[in-house]
């Protein structure tokens, strides 16, 4: 009988448990949780805050109790795992007790990163990652009714928190240490349009400055003091600089890591019998052929399912992974596919703009990065074609796909640029 | 959602959902189809349309247009009440009045004109919808006017007349028994959707499909073994050239010609003028393709020609071109033969059910003979073969007032956009008519010129009699109440007959009584038909005659034979300059002077079918309009490039008779030098570009599908 | 019973009867700018040899066996109908985040104008469960689209399943 452990129970952990149960009805599946709430989707927190969904909707798989019963799991609530003996495949609990398994999945996810600056604990300084964060912010907004908000970090979370603020009618300022928003994913030309849109919507912007500390004014307002001396005062300050994988407990375990846990296509870590999936791992990415941390819900679920199956003896692989950043906020959407940092001055550039639609793409021998604004309807097509262009030599675009792109206002020249020639 | 809510949302018929299927027919397009409909009705509203699987003919199939019946019936611009004009003609200002008031005014005004001028000065006219025509026709004659006219003047009738001239009867394709399908301008998919299955079946059993069309259509892609992309309007030359090849190779059926064909020797002499190289030059085709088409047609066993309803006859050489194609049928012995082209009758309203009715007698027996009809002396062939005035001559008679003035106009679905120089026609009506009434479902461009506008209802809101293939007759029941105050046309026509107190007891007895009279020989009555919500088998219906029966009895032509040399044409006064032989003329022969050629280098093909339009009636149907929001003029890629025109650019298209504005659609589907555009848009009415004298002298039909014009990119000021 | 949508590109003419059938069935406000779940294409694709390929197509949700949209949806709106195997949805909790569109290789999800929620072709699964054909299939006069039980499809040896479309319509193979 397979005996497995799942450490951390988000999208990856849940899908691992589900798949393992499907493949092995008799396996013993132990699940370790820091909290006592079921798997939820961190991406939904800001939607909960603005009232787009109810609290329960953040938990797409249902309650922990229901999952526990349906998947026949042993759930260890509020039982953090503090260490791992990789060679023995043994987990070490906070109380010092240990348990050995046939295989172990690390699916501990990631946490919001708040830099260790002075004032970060002041009331009115908020962060956003967990369901708890969401409950807090929702309550805070409804009780304190702040009029002004400062968002530090033009990240995917930052922009959604900004959207929450805007939906409360708050005056907002968005600042970031980089020279433009979403700097790890978008071209400056794309960012310029994103900035313009935000400014049109009344958002004040301040880029290229790092947070030094936060002070409280005499009237209770908060002021973020930047390293360059700039001061931004608001009723509330959201620190959304980024997230960090939850891998601290693995120190000394010997498991190979970069910023997160390195895994192969089968979601195996360097230690036999130990797997990792979701936001805490780095899986192979098609463009670079290297392992990268790409924290999106879809990956977490897919990776979890692959790991879960493999842990009980199946042989599945996770593939088709590309760098991907999708943002959808304030009736605006953009996507970045591929690695913007891989682009060089020698590369070929395609640019197109018509009305709300903007496309900028760069290719060397192969495609490198595509930015598109206002193309939600075709993002999946583009992403799939991008991945295909690395997986298959001379990937071609099929006729329906080409037709679909043309019908959505994508110029034939762009289709040709990305290598979508249907005949040569 | 509960299971029941899901069922209701999915529109599943049943007692629990309250959704009932009611049967009716779609009258949006040609009466040759009128496909059966399953109308899903809930709380008196149609919520879904499907083809009715057991309906004769259509057997569950409906086209894009038919599928949109809900969109059509509930168009937001339905006319709600009878209306009386309060603004200027064409301005569109009306006030609501009652039906009784409207009919009283109409009766008074018509009688006034009758008294002041004559009954003939009142023209009765029917637009595209044809179902009420027997009643309107009879009302016209009962009233005493000789002037009953319809959109037949630009529709299928020229084809019908050509058939009658050559064969004395119809010449429909007998695809099920053919080895070769010669699709002459065959589009199929967008205009005659039910025909496609038969052509596909022929292809699947190893038959050959040849398609001759200036445009690369889905039929070309999906069905054609051989495709001849002909220059618009040069079909007559191709047919004569093919005739020469067939004769030169002795692929003719000499016995058949001997027995059944009149004028073969003259024809043989005529085709000598069409050697292959000359035909290639005229048609833009290559010699091998022409030869191959002739060879396959003549030597591959039974071969049938498909004639498009009016594509060919919308050239000013169209009647003769059609007859030139007829000659191919004649010399290869493919008329009234299995797998060839076969005669067929009509039971009622363009449908052959294999039984006879008294439609013709009902319509024509009261015809006055004391005056010339509109167009009678201008188009003698038309007048001989069609019991209607020629609507194309209306504009002239209105403007000139000769040989007598037209002073009142009773229009049902009048659509001036179906006639050349539409706006000029409407102006002539506005300037010269004392009274003009129009009935329609929608406030159309033409209806805005009327003094009284009556709200008509759709086929789904009325009961009507209809014949179907396979020996069926139907009398439909309304599936919903007429919208607003709209009424079935026949109801108010019979009411009007009573108001006018015409000397016609049958008409005054109402539509059902008239139907009973018309079908008195079928063994059925309207009461019998109304018992079923599906078409009923007619006891007297007989299967079609065996091929050869018609020829054996002698053709209903003057010579009793198939007339390549038409004695009927020969009998027309020489002053008309008509040729009894189907010789070829350039489709632009009246527009070819050097100045015209330079100023208007393009050839406009107007009225190219779109799958989701029917004349103008669906242009404003919201779902369908959204499939193509803007009027588009198609232009070949090379021409577009040369003129700096890109996809969706605004363009200005001009001819000697007008200018319109549309957006460009750049295409490879036809050759350079041609433009193609669908008709019927008020804001971009391509028929305003068709000069009203650019007509086929045989049929009187306008040259919609070859007319000189020019195009340029239009920079909006 | 599991069902399979089939499409035969040699029978399609892009007449859009299927689009109107779908619109009629699903009360889609086409004129108001909503997009039909099914789309047709009449597109000319110039080839390098100077010839032109005339594409006439009708596409909608492919009802993928392992549908990526199901995995991608953060709120779990999308699921498989156990009877028909169609990819169905309940958009009550939909947040309009467009993750499904990003996952879908075919561009099948649509977003309602009024509230931004996702809507898509559900294969008319309720009709199919009630022994009826999907609306688009009923609307096709040419037999280009069909929906057949999976066993019947497998027995037919056809390769016209919609989710095999990509291979079939690859032009290089075609020409």
Describe the overall structure:
The complex is a heterotrimer of chains A (424), B (717) and C (175). Chain A is of the alpha/beta class. Chain A has helices at residues 11-23, 45-49, 64-70, 131-144, 156-167, 188-200, 297-311, 379-391, 399-407, 412-417, and strands at residues 3-7, 28-32, 74-76, 81-85, 90-93, 98-100, 103-106, 110-113, 125-126, 148-152, 171-176, 204-207, 211-216, 222-226, 231-234, 236-239, 242-245, 261-262, 274-276, 281-284, 291-292, 324-329, 332-338, 348-354, 357-363, 367-373. Chain A folds into 3 domains: 3-109 and 246-311, FAD/NAD(P)-binding domain, CATH 3.50.50; 112-242, FAD/NAD(P)-binding domain (3-Layer(bba) Sandwich); 331-417, FAD/NAD-linked reductase, C-terminal dimerisation domain (Enolase-like, domain 1, 2-Layer Sandwich). Chain A has a 5-stranded parallel β-sheet, covered by helices on one side. Chain A has a 5-stranded parallel β-sheet with strand order 9-16-10-11-12, with helices on one face. By secondary structure, chain B is α/β, with parallel strands linked by helices. Chain B has 4 domains: 3-73, Phosphorylase Kinase, domain 1, CATH 3.30.200.210; 83-156 and 354-456 and 486-514, 3-Layer(aba) Sandwich (Rossmann fold), CATH 3.40.50; 173-342, 3-Layer(aba) Sandwich (Dimethylsulfoxide Reductase, domain 2); 589-713, Barwin-like endoglucanases (Beta Barrel), CATH 2.40.40.20. In chain B, α4 (99-116) packs across α19. Chain B starts with a helix and ends with a strand. Chain C has 175 residues and is α+β, with helices and mostly antiparallel strands. Chain C is built from 8 helices and 8 strands; from the N terminus they run βαββαββαββααβααα. Chain C has helices spanning 17-26, 68-72, 99-103, 125-129, 135-139, 150-156, 165-168, 171-174, and strands spanning 3-7, 39-46, 52-59, 78-80, 87-89, 110-111, 118-119, 145-149. In chain C, the strands form 4 sheets. In chain C, strands 1-8 form a two-stranded antiparallel ribbon. In chain C, strands 2-3 form a two-stranded antiparallel ribbon. In chain C, a hairpin with a 6-residue loop joins β4 and β5 (87-89). The longest helix of chain C has 10 residues, at 17-26. Chain A binds chain C through residues 41, 43-44, 47, 52-54, 57, 60-61, 297-298, 301-302, 324, 326, 328, 333, 335, 376-381, 383-384, 396, 398-404, 406-408, 422-424, and chain C through 35, 39, 41, 43, 45, 47-48, 53, 55, 57, 59, 68, 71-76, 93, 95-107, 109-111, 165-166, 169-172, 175.
């Amino acid at each position: 009988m397979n005996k497995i452990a799942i450490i951390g129970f988000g999208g990856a952990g849940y899908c691992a448990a589900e798949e393992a149960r499907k493949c092995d009805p008799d396996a013993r599946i132990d699940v370790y949780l820091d909290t006592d709430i079921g798997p939820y989707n961190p991406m939904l927190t800001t939607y909960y805050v603005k009232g787009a969904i109810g609290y329960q909707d953040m938990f797409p798989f249902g309650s922990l109790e229901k999952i526990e019963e349906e998947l026949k799991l042993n759930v260890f609530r509020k039982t953090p795992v503090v260490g791992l003996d990789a060679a023995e495949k043994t987990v070490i609990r906070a109380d010092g007790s240990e348990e050995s398994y046939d295989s172990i999945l690390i699916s501990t996810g990631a946490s919001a990163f708040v830099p260790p600056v002075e004032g970060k604990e002041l009331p009115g300084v908020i962060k956003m990652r967990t369901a708890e964060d969401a409950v807090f912010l929702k309550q805070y907004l409804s009780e304190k009714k702040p009029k002004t908000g400062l968002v530090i970090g033009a990240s995917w979370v930052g922009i959604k928190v900004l959207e929450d603020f805007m939906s409360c009618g708050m005056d907002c300022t968005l600042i970031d240490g980089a020279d433009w928003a979403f700097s790890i994913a978008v071209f400056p030309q794309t960012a310029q349009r994103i900035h313009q849109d935000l400014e049109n919507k009344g958002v004040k912007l301040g880029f290229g400055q790092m947070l030094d500390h936060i002070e409280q004014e005499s009237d209770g307002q908060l002021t973020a003091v930047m390293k360059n001396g700039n001061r931004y005062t608001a009723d509330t300050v959201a620190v959304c600089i980024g997230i960090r994988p939850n891998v601290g407990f693995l120190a000394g375990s010997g498991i190979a890591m970069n910023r997160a846990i390195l895994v192969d296509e089968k979601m195996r870590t360097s230690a036999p019998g130990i797997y990792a999936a979701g936001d805490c791992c780095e899986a192979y990415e098609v463009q670079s052929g290297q392992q990268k941390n790409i924290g999106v819900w879809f990956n977490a679920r897919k990776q979890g399912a692959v790991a879960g199956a493999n842990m009980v003896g199946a042989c599945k692989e996770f593939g088709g992974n590309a760098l991907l950043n999708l943002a959808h906020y304030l009736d605006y959407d953009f996507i970045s596919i591929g690695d913007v940092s891989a682009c060089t001055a020698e590369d070929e550039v395609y640019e197109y703009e018509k009305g709300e639609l903007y496309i900028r793409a760069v290719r060397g021998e192969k495609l490198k990065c595509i930015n598109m604004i206002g193309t939600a309807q075709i993002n999946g097509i583009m992403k799939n074609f991008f991945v295909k262009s690395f997986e298959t030599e001379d990937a071609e675009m099929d006729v329906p796909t080409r037709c679909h792109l043309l019908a959505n206002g994508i110029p034939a020249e762009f289709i040709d640029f990305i290598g979508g020639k249907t005949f040569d | 959602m509960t299971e029941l809510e899901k069922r209701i949302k999915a529109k599943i018929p049943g007692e629990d959902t309250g959704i009932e299927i009611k049967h009716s027919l779609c009258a949006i397009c040609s009466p040759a189809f009128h496909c059966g409909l399953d109308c899903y009705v809930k709380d008196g509203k149609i919520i879904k349309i499907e083809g009715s699987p057991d309906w004769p003919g259509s057997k569950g199939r409906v086209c894009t247009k038919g599928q949109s019946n809900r969109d059509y019936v509930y168009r937001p611009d339905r006319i709600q009440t009878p209306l009386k004009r309060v603004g200027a003609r064409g301005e569109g200002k009306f006030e609501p009045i009652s039906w009784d008031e409207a009919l009283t005014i109409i009766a008074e005004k018509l009688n006034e004109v009758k008294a002041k001028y004559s009954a003939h000065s009142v023209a009765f006219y029917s637009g595209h919808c044809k179902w009420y025509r027997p009643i309107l026709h009879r009302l016209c004659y009962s009233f005493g006017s000789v002037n009953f006219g319809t959109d037949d003047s630009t529709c299928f009738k020229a084809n019908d007349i050509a058939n009658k001239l050559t064969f004395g009867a119809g010449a429909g394709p007998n695809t099920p028994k053919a080895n070769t399908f010669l699709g002459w301008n065959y589009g199929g998919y967008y205009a005659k959707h039910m025909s496609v299955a038969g052509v596909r079946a022929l292809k699947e059993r190893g038959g050959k499909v040849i398609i001759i069309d200036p445009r690369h259509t889905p039929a070309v892609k999906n069905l054609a073994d051989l495709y001849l992309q002909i220059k618009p309007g040069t079909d007559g030359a191709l047919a004569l050239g093919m005739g020469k090849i067939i004769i030169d190779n002795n692929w003719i059926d000499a016995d058949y010609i001997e027995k059944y064909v009149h004028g073969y020797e003259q024809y043989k002499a005529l085709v000598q003028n069409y050697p292959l190289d000359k035909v290639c030059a005229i048609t833009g085709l290559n010699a091998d393709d022409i030869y191959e088409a002739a060879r396959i047609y003549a030597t591959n066993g039974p071969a049938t020609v498909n004639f498009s309803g009016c594509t060919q006859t919308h050239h000013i050489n169209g009647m003769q071109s059609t007859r030139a194609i007829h000659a191919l049928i004649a010399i290869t012995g493919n008329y009234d033969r299995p797998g060839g082209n076969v005669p067929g009758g009509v039971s009622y309203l363009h449908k052959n059910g294999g039984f006879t009715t008294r439609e013709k007698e009902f319509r024509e027996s009261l015809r006055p003979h004391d005056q010339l009809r509109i167009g009678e002396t201008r188009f003698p062939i038309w007048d001989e073969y069609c019991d209607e005035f020629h609507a194309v001559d209306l504009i002239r008679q209105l403007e000139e007032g000769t040989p007598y003035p037209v002073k009142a106009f009773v229009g049902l679905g009048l659509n001036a956009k179906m006639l050349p120089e539409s706006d000029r026609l409407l102006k002539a009506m506005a300037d010269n008519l004392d009274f003009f009434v129009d009935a329609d479902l929608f406030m159309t461009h033409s209806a805005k010129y009327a003094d009284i506008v009556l709200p008509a209802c759709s086929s789904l809101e009325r009961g009507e009699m209809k014949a179907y293939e396979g020996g069926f007759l139907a009398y439909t029941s309304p599936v919903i109440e007429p919208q607003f105050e709209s009424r079935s046309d026949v109801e108010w026509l019979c009411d009007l007959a009573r108001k006018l107190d015409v000397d016609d007891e049958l008409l005054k007895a109402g539509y059902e009584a008239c139907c009973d009279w018309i079908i008195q020989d079928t063994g059925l009555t309207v009461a019998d038909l109304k018992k079923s919500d599906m078409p009923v088998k007619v006891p007297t219906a007989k299967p079609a005659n065996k091929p050869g029966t018609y020829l054996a009895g002698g053709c209903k032509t003057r010579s009793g034979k198939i007339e390549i040399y038409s004695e009927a044409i020969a009998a027309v006064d020489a002053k008309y300059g008509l040729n009894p032989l189907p010789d070829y003329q350039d489709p632009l022969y009246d527009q070819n002077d050097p100045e015209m050629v330079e100023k208007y280098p393009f050839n406009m093909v107007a009225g190219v079918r779109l799958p989701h339009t029917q004349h103008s009636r669906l242009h404003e149907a919201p779902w369908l309009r959204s499939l193509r929001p803007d009027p588009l003029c198609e232009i070949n890629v090379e021409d577009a490039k040369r003129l700096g025109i890109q996809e969706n650019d605004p363009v200005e298209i001009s001819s000697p008779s007008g200018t319109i504005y549309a957006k460009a659609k750049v295409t490879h589907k036809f050759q350079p030098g041609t433009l193609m555009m669908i008709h019927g848009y008020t804001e971009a009415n391509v028929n305003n570009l068709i000069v009203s004298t650019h007509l086929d002298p045989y049929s009187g039909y306008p040259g919609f599908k070859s007319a000189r014009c020019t195009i340029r990119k239009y920079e909006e000021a | 019973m599991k069902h399979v949508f089939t499409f035969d590109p040699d029978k399609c003419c892009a007449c859009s009867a299927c689009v109107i059938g779908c619109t009629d069935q699903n009360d889609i406000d086409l004129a108001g700018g909503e997009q039909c779940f099914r789309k047709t294409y009449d597109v000319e694709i110039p080839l390098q040899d100077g010839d032109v390929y005339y594409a006439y197509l009708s596409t909608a949700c492919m009802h993928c066996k392992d549908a990526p949209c199901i995995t991608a949806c953060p709120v779990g709106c999308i699921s498989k109908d156990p009877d028909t195997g169609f990819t169905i949805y309940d958009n009550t909790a939909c947040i309009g985040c467009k993750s499904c569109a990003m996952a879908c290789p075919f561009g099948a999800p649509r977003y309602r104008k009024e509230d931004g929620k996702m809507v898509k072709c559900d294969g008319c699964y309720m009709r199919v469960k009630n022994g009826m054909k999907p609306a688009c299939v009923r609307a096709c006069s040419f037999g280009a689209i069909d929906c057949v039980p999976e066993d019947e499809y497998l027995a037919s040896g056809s390769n016209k399943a919609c989710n095999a479309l990509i291979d079939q319509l690859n032009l290089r193979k075609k020409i």
